[in-house]
Amino acid sequence: MRMLPVLLSSFLAAGPLVVVNPGFEKNTEGWTFTAGTGVATNRPHGGTRLVYLDAGPGKSVSQTITVPTAGSYSVSAWIATGGAGGTFTVLRGGTAVRTVTLPSRSTYARYTISDVAVAEGEQLGIVFGSGSGWVNVDDVMISPGAKASPAVTSSNPKIAEMFEWAKAKAGSWVHQDGAAGPLDVDERRPSGTGEGVYTPAYWAGYAHRSGYYSRDFAHQLAGAHILGLDAENRNMLRSFARSATEEHKYYPVWALNFDASTYLAIDYRSPTDFVREVPATFELVEKANQAFRWTGDRAYVDDPVFWDYYRHAVKEFVELHDGRLPNGIAEGTGKGIFQGTASYNEVSGEPLAEAGDAIGSQYQAYKAMAALAADKGDSKLSGSLEEKARRLKEYFNQTWSVKQGTGEFVRAYTVDGTPLTGFGKENSWFMPMKGIIDAGPRNDAYLDFVDAEASGAGRPRNIEAVTYLPDTFFRHNRAETAWKWMQDVYDKREDNHVSSRQGLNGDYPEVPFTLVSQTVEGLMGIQPDAPRRTVATLSRLPGDIGWLEVADVPVGDGKVTVRHDGTSSSTFTNGGSSKVFWQARFLGAHRWLEVDGHRFPGRRQVIDGVTYTVAKVPVRPGQTATAKHAS
């Protein structure tokens, strides 16, 4: 086999494995070019330059790097083509590890070769080859290989395929700690304003901007943990917490560069003029508690930066932003994203003071802070916040969401106090997603309404908004509907994103991260409490998934494997070194449960108004247990 020419420039130094001149902004530096290739400025993905390969066989652009630190790495590049047959290859020691054969696609798409294991001092090659039409390449990136690699097997091949795609795609968005990269890149400044040193972080937001966003990050955190990105989650969340200063009226900034310290310029003009949205303040509290439950990392309760953020969010932030319609609910200004909006729905044009996604998120923030306070040993604070959550939910169901004299469901209020009904996208589906609606017929009817609207004229144009729908329906055990929306997101991954700069839907980072978490937390119903070495499970398998197993899910300092056979049998394996208490949950009231062949009366448990039958099973390291219901 004839090898394509490889590079030229190599280096050996402790630190991250980096590509020389990854965006071709330094012209040909670091790359080897054959005839019929070069650097152009006509159609870059980012910055001002790209490389091109003319049509026809035998042309290549390549680079070889000497690996400074042994490990596993993933290599990605944005590529557009005028014809099929081009190639993207990664070599190890001069031998091809994997080659991606490129389709004909004139829109830039992101291609990744994942988890290439290399030794210190070994040669890693990156080669782009020509095809039947032109090939354009830009923005090459190397990510650290998977830190955790849960695996899915199932009677339904689609969910296994979906999970593997999502796992690889999500991993391609992770930055190496210590790598240099541009700052303040956006559509107005495609080359940014300079260079910084990146810290542990991953992309959460538009791929044509050099930062991560609070809203996207909050939705990606669980999937990131499942893939082992706990250092990244903690670093990114702490950067938002640190930004929520008194000067910012306790709002976290909307986005930070990947150095985790400078604010992304397109969204931050001054301490009084920056993008801020009420739900994000509260969601970050909720997600901190979620991270603590998954990891058991005491930083989430002991680090004063985190703790100050939580307590300001549930107290001073609410007090400072509850002036127009004083009722204990944090408000927006109704004046746009740079003055503070009440809702994540940025395109409605409605001058909202209060919104369903904000009040739902505030409710969950109270519950999260109560749980964190309990683990910190402050029972008084925990009790007061539980009571605040209870009162807020009661007020929501009896007053806030009720339009007097009608059966309509209120989802927002304008700055003059006018209640709004109908479909408001985020300020509609966040209400059931956050569990603030009382269980029962009213909640069931609203879920039907959300599904119908999102399936019809109310469907969001941006795929990242659709990624919330599986979470909404999983929370209420509507497995068929949630699975329908997971498939909808996955099946549209090759469609063009509504933002042409973003490329394909599947290249929006939120898509793969949420498919990972929706498989583990949604379909498998895995709910950890690592500080108490407890893991609950609940099968939410739809009818066309007969059985599903997820192996090696990280929880605390160990791993668990869970299998569901339909909705009546669950199997749990403790892959860690300490005993785990498994709560095997089954929806509904069942007279009998069977654990490892032993039959005993079912134990009833009501959670958020829904009845479950639960078996509590201690599982030793290396042990497997099976629970079934037989009613």
From TrEMBL:
SUPFAM superfamilies: Galactose-binding domain-like, Six-hairpin glycosidases
Keyword Cytoplasm attributed: no
Keyword Transmembrane helix tagged: no
Residues in the signal sequence: 1-19
Coiled coil: none
Keyword annotations: Signal
Entry protein name: CBM35 domain-containing protein
Species: Nonomuraea roseola
Higher taxonomy: Bacteria, Bacillati, Actinomycetota, Actinomycetes, Streptosporangiales
